[in-house]
Each structure stands twice: as structure tokens, then as C-alpha cells.
Design goal:
The protein is an alpha+beta fold. Helix content is 14%, strand content 28%. Strand 4 and strand 5 form a beta hairpin.
Length: 226
């Protein structure tokens, strides 16, 4: 499958890249085992850290990352945050009245990253736009899903500054959104029966036969985003 990113800015800017190229330093630098050795803990488990957790790895490396194409400086004037940027009309604003009860609301307007990238996915595929996962950031975008097989104009990203007292630079190249394409399908919920419980117990017992990389070696499938 292909996802197409088209630059609508009219100038040469940093291109989106697979999220695997933006693995955060805290994750890269972390030891895989608290003991720094691949050995059991002495109590039937291992000393594995979150670095050995494949669900976290899959979240960090899912999809693609769009970065800020220019510097943005945040300052506080009269108890309100102001944004300055030099090019591209990088930030615009939603009035607070558009989402007055959103859990991430702040006292004033919602700033919005004006994304220069138009995205197109194959028929039947949509895209989740979310805050880059497991990455430290001074801001958080409000997640959304767009049917990018039919809507191929740029999707912008409203956000909030996490600390209302933050002042400083958001540098060019900062990850601003994680872009994860997925296939639209109809789903129907059911409550599991005895058969599902038997299956779950069987999986638990199978996991207990290994010390290391249980989920990875028995159940995990590699995901590819190029």
C-alpha cells in the first residue's frame, strides 16, 4: 500500500519520514534490562525494561512523522501566550468557543499547526493524526481521523501548550504529528464466551514457558512503514 505526501507550501521543506527514524533518545539510550544483563530476576520473571515491550515499540514506530518546517517562539504577554514565526503562515487559531468543554481546553484560543502536507491514501483507507507517541513535547495536538482517500487537502493540527507558563522556542524539525494510515472496516462488539476464556488461558500458559521476549517471539508481527 502507498501513502502519498504532497508539499503544498511552494518551498523546499523537510519531508515526512517513517516514525522509526524519530525514535526518542530516552528510548534509544535506555537499557533493555534493569540488571544490564539478559537473565531471570530470581522470582520467575525477568528484569526486562519497557524497551523490550513490543507494544510500546510498535506505538513509537507506527506510521510517519510530520515535523515543524520552521521555528516558532512562544512568549507570554499579559498572562496570555503569543506565538511568533517567520514564514509559511505556520500557526492559525480556533476560537475557544469551538470547543469550550474539551478536556485539553485553555483559557484562550486553540493554536493550530497549518500543515503544508496533503495526504492521500488508497481507497478504503483513513488516517489517524495524533500526538507523536511516547515523546516528550511542550505541546499536545488534538487527535483526529480523516478519510484521506477522498479528502486529500492538507489536514491541520489544533494543539495546546501543556504548560500555560511556557516560554521558549519550538525549533524547526520538531515532530508535530504522527500519521497512521489504517483500513476502514465495520466492527461489531461481542462479549467473549467460554471458548475465548479457554484461548486466553492457553496463551497465558504458553507465555510462561519462556523467560525472554515472550510476546515478541510467539505472537508479534512486524509492521512496516517505508
Amino acid at each position: 500500500m502507498k501513502i502519498i505526501f504532497s508539499n503544498t507550501s511552494g518551498i523546499d521543506i523537510e519531508q515526512p519520514q517513517p516514525a522509526s527514524k524519530f525514535v526518542p533518545d530516552w528510548y534509544k539510550n535506555m537499557e533493555s534490562y534493569t540488571s544490564k544483563e539478559r537473565k531471570p530476576s530470581g522470582s520467575g520473571t525477568t528484569t526486562a525494561t519497557i524497551k523490550r515491550c513490543m507494544p510500546v515499540f510498535d506505538a513509537i514506530t507506527a506510521g510517519y512523522i510530520i515535523t515543524s518546517p520552521a521555528d516558532v517562539y512562544v512568549s507570554i504577554k499579559e498572562k496570555q501566550q503569543y506565538f511568533e514565526w517567520s514564514t509559511l503562515g505556520l500557526i492559525s487559531f480556533h476560537p475557544i468557543e469551538q470547543a469550550p468543554e474539551h478536556p485539553s481546553r485553555k483559557p484562550h484560543a486553540y493554536p493550530k499547526w497549518n500543515n503544508p502536507w496533503a495526504i492521500k491514501t488508497p481507497k478504503g483507507y483513513s488516517t489517524l493524526f495524533t500526538q507523536p507517541m511516547h515523546r516528550e513535547s511542550v505541546f499536545t495536538i488534538l487527535p483526529g481521523i480523516v478519510d484521506t482517500d477522498t479528502y486529500t487537502a492538507p489536514v491541520n493540527f489544533p494543539f495546546v501548550i501543556n504548560d500555560p507558563n511556557f516560554e521558549g522556542l519550538i525549533p524547526k524539525g520538531t515532530p508535530i504529528a504522527q500519521v497512521i494510515p489504517f483500513k476502514r472496516e465495520g466492527w461489531q462488539m461481542e462479549i467473549g464466551s467460554k471458548e475465548e476464556l479457554i484461548e486466553q488461558n492457553s496463551i497465558t500458559q504458553k507465555l510462561q514457558t519462556k523467560f525472554f521476549d515472550r510476546y515478541k517471539s510467539m505472537f508479534w508481527s512486524r509492521k512496516e512503514y517505508k
